[in-house]
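I am writing to request your help with a piece of structural work I have in hand. Here, with my thanks, is the record as I have it:
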Amino acid sequence: MKSGGNGWLVQPLHERKLRTERCIYMLSRVKRLFVIKTRWEAYLIIYALALGAMTRGAHYTEIYPGWPGYVLMAATAGAVFIGGAKILDAIRYEHEARQAKVTPAAEAPVEPQVDVPADALDESDAYLLARQSSRTVHVGGSDQIH
């Protein structure tokens, strides 16, 4: 590296690229800390949210005595229920998406073929039915529309 006041400007390009790649790698590792991966982690976060919400709700009952405080306390509890349900649904969705990626095409479920009598449909109806259901439709036993 050359000496001077603008040391980072005169660094070779490959050194700056390596430093940038290391920085991106470290940021991706820090980002993983904030990703909820398991249901256990989700339950811990929901518990922490509920603890904070109930503390806030207790303060609401002191600040607003009577039914307004209890309504606000119920609202904080309801927010935790809704947020917790969303977190658990998102984890289930991500798990199912990962499982769908892992499932090979040979083991994927095969949709059954639909047999339709020849006099029940004309060609345009059979074509629309095949497009909507993404299945093979047999019209008259010999024609196939995909």
The longest strand covers residues 114-116.
